[in-house]
Amino acid sequence: MMNATKFTFGADFREGGRRAAGEADIAAARAEGIAAGREQGRREAESQLNGLVAQLARAAERLVAQEATHAAQVEAQAAHVAIVAAKAFAGVALAQWPLAALEQGLRECLTHARLAPHLVMRVNDGAVDAAETLVKRLAQETGFAGRLVVLGEPDIAPGDGRIEWADGGFVIESERLSRLVEQAVATAFPGFRVPTE
To answer: Does the pTM of the predicted model rise above 0.90?
Structure first.
């Protein structure tokens, strides 16, 4: 048979002894709990930090994409304003000085074709009288001795014209100049497409 041990003589059952053993266990448990809590808090903080960093990265990507879209919109608007402004300035200049481009072209032609036997200027039907006055004045200023002829043509736009002589010619065409302006704007703003009216 087994003998049961009724009393354990090595245990201290006094009031103070139990307290001492309990406080040591509590202190150890407390220290273990604090360490475990710190570790869990560190892991949670690290997880939250990683989540926040991921959110910041996604927000930064969205902002960069939005900024790129905004920059493209600003470029397109700037290009559109440039074309509208160029056309408006050209329209105002044409209204105030309808033969200015032709005058400049004629000056160039008269200096290069000074010895030509004749020179023909083709302009819009409505600008023939003003063009004749211009041609006579410039011929006197440059000393051109050849024959000067001004012809009106209905298919030539106001402000446009052609100057011709035996060995060459010169064309002023506002539509072509408009296309050149649009090409210059398209070169400056590569993504821009000229709106069709």
So the answer is: no
Q: How far apart are CA 181 and CA 188, in angstroms?
A: 11
98-176: CATH, from 3.30.360, 3.40.30, 3.30.70, 2.30.30: 3.30.360
The CA distances from residue 6 to 3, 9, 10, in Å, are: 9, 10, 12
Q: CA 185 to CA 146: how far, in whole Å?
A: 41
Listed residue (11, 69, 151) closest to 161, CA to CA:
151
Find all residues with CB under 8 Å of 124, minimum gap 6, and list them. Answer: 152, 153, 154, 156, 157, 158, 159, 160, 161
In the chain, domain spans: 98-176
- Tell me the C-alpha distance between 32 and 13, whole Å: 26
Residue 157 φ/ψ, nearest 5 degrees: -70, 150
The residue with tokens 């902002």 is 63
Token pair listed for 156: 């030539």
Ranges of residues in the chain with a pLDDT under 70 are 1-21, 82-98, 177, 181, 185, 189-197
Distance between CA atoms of residues 93 and 95, nearest Å: 5
